[in-house]
Write a structure and sequence with these properties.
45% of the residues lie in helices and 17% in strands. The chain has 2 domains: 224 residues, Glycogen Phosphorylase B (Rossmann fold), CATH 3.40.50.2000; 208 residues, Rossmann fold (3-Layer(aba) Sandwich). Helix 12 links the parallel strand 14 and strand 15. It is built from 19 helices and 18 strands. It is an alpha/beta fold. The structure holds GDP-alpha-D-glucose. The site of GDP-alpha-D-glucose has 18 residues, from strand 13, helix 13 and helix 14.
Length: 513
């Protein structure tokens, strides 16, 4: 497994002592068992720059830290990943910055990750690369290790070609991704945008979700027991570009939501808020893609119009600190906090504040208590790969009540169709949906929530990783990608000469198993 961040964090205390803390996200939970039983290794950055660390075992998973210098952190991560790709892939909600130095650093760091994987993976192993920070790794890895089966999953949207085309390095990025056997996306629309980019940039043939990539593109065709030939015939390798909507560890959220201490904490939260009739909740990383400003504007206008009253309705907004060294994020924080201050100043009273704004990260237990305390969850992202918060809210609602207001621009909208779907740019429409959520009869809430819970419990994060890995296994058995690296490299012409009498397809099929 490769991801920008390791599932463990290196923490250095004030007195200089260092320790590891686990960050058990959904991805880790889903993959832990399979990683353990297969002697899996996880390659990633441990969260501290300029601090090379040795690999170590963490509960049966081999952890391989990749070091980043302070400059790489600034150029590869904060720069190219978070200030070029992130805004570009989220429909240029913010202006992407293009710097050649950032790109060079992105290439270097991707190469380091690919080298680490090439040095670690066993013969014929499966390697799964996570997310937009590492899009060049599949090609770089295939060049060194054509015996591997390589998967890639993009957690954020893939933009339409008209937007993607801005990127000065668009060709290299698509080439990098095409080094994988399976490229996973959140939504069908993302996969469609990607295959369209492939057709526009390379003219490769696509058959539905399958792209036929010339083998020269991403590594030679290997056939055991034959020698390298002089000339090569055009041959292609199928690459699957398909949507695999990510999910959460739904059972663990449900269990937390039944925990008596957490249930009591939820009651306490409502009491502390002054027992309003309705608690609305927003939980987001403080990011401009999440539409926090649109949500606040709609809420402020509803108070101004008198359609909602602070005595009845409170909005709790958790905005967890994120990417604070990137300029755009510092501006966003200022903007949001100015808006919150204005709304509270205009509409709050001594006993009721309109918005309870919390710029903190919280333990998962507290997040679940907040979900339990909330009658309405507001997810108003302007663009979001999936949005796990929406699914987490649904998973905690054991009593089948509660209303999810969900942006149609979040990937989750493809699955959670009985949410109140909104276009967050349409402030009047958003206001109407918020009022409707506040007033929704319990029977309707339950009907809608049951359908969403069915989906979230049936299709959890384990199903997500199983379906991705099973497609990877299928494509591998079709293409023979796992033929040992020690075999000599040949091309199709040689095989045809040696197998005179068989058709090219049979010869290839026999040779590649
Ligand atoms: C990217 C894509 C895609 C947030 N604050 C706290 C906290 N969180 C947790 C949430 C949720 C996760 O962080 C955030 O996930 P999201 O999906 O909402 O958004 P991104 O961080 O932007 O994630 C996104 C995701 O990747 C997965 O593929 O869905 O579209 O942008 O789990 O609960 N958790 C705790 N304290 C906090 O303060 N414990």
């Amino acid at each position: 497994m490769l991801s920008n961040r390791l599932p463990v964090d290196r923490v250095i205390a004030d007195d200089g002592t260092a320790s590891w803390t686990h960050s058990p996200g959904g991805l880790v939970t889903a993959l832990e068992p399979i990683m353990r039983s297969n002697g899996g290794a996880w390659i990633g950055w441990p969260g501290v720059a300029d601090h090379p660390l040795e690999p170590f075992d963490s509960d049966g998973i081999w952890i391989i830290p990749v070091d980043l210098t302070a400059r790489e952190l600034e150029y590869y991560y904060e720069g190219f990943s978070n200030d070029t790709l992130w805004p570009l892939y989220h429909d240029v909600i913010a202006q992407p910055t293009y710097h050649r130095d950032w790109w060079d650093s992105y290439v270097e760091v991707n190469q380091r990750f690919a080298d680490a994987a090439a040095a670690t993976a066993a013969e014929g192993a499966t390697v799964w690369v996570q997310d937009y920070q590492l899009q060049l790794v599949p090609k770089m890895l295939r060049e060194q290790r054509p015996d591997l089966t390589i998967g890639f999953f993009n957690h954020i949207p893939f933009p339409p070609y008209g937007i993607f085309a801005q990127l000065p390095w668009r060709t290299q990025i698509v080439e990098g991704l095409l080094g994988a056997d399976v490229i996973g996306f959140q939504r069908a629309a993302d996969a469609g945008n990607f295959t369209r980019a492939v057709r526009r940039l390379f003219g490769y043939i696509t058959r539905g979700a399958v792209v036929d990539v010339p083998v020269e593109q991403a590594g030679p065709l290997r056939v055991p027991g034959t020698k390298r030939a002089r000339n090569s015939l055009p041959a292609t390798r199928p690459v699957l570009a398909k949507h695999f909507p990510i999910s959460i560890d739904s059972r663990s959220y449900e269990e937390l939501a039944r925990d008596p201490e957490i249930l009591e904490r939820a009651q306490q939260i409502r009491r502390d808020l002054g027992n309003p009739k309705v608690v609305m909740l927003g939980v987001d990383r403080l990011d401009y893609t999440k539409g926090i400003g649109h949500r606040l504007k709609a809420f402020g206008e509803l108070l101004a119009d008198g359609r909602l009253r602070v005595e009845d309705v409170t909005l709790v907004q958790v905005a967890s600190p994120s990417r604070e060294r990137v300029e755009t994020y510092r501006h966003l924080r200022d903007e949001i906090e100015l808006t919150v201050g204005r709304i509270n100043g205009d509409f709050g009273s001594i006993s009721h504040s309109a918005i309870n704004y919390l710029h903190h990260g919280y333990p998962r237990e507290e997040m679940v208590a907040l979900c339990l305390a909330a009658d309405v969850m507001l997810v108003t992202a302007l663009r979001d790969g999936m949005n796990l918060v929406a699914k987490e809210y649904v998973a905690t609602r054991n009593t089948d009540d509660g209303v999810l207001v969900l942006s149609e621009f979040a990937g989750a909208a493809d699955e959670l169709k009985t949410a109140l779907l909104v276009n967050p740019h349409d402030i009047d429409g958003l206001k109407d949906a918020m009022v409707r959520a506040v007033e929704m009869p319990r029977r309707e809430q339950q009907k809608r929530m049951r359908a969403m819970r069915k989906r979230v419990f049936e299709y959890d994060v384990a199903r997500w990783s199983d379906s991705f890995l099973s497609e990877l296994g299928t494509i591998r058995s079709h293409t023979g990608a796992a033929i040992p690296a020690a075999e000599p490299v040949v091309d199709l012409e040689d095989v045809l000469e040696q197998d005179a009498g068989t058709t090219p397809v049979e010869a290839l099929g026999d040779a590649r198993g």
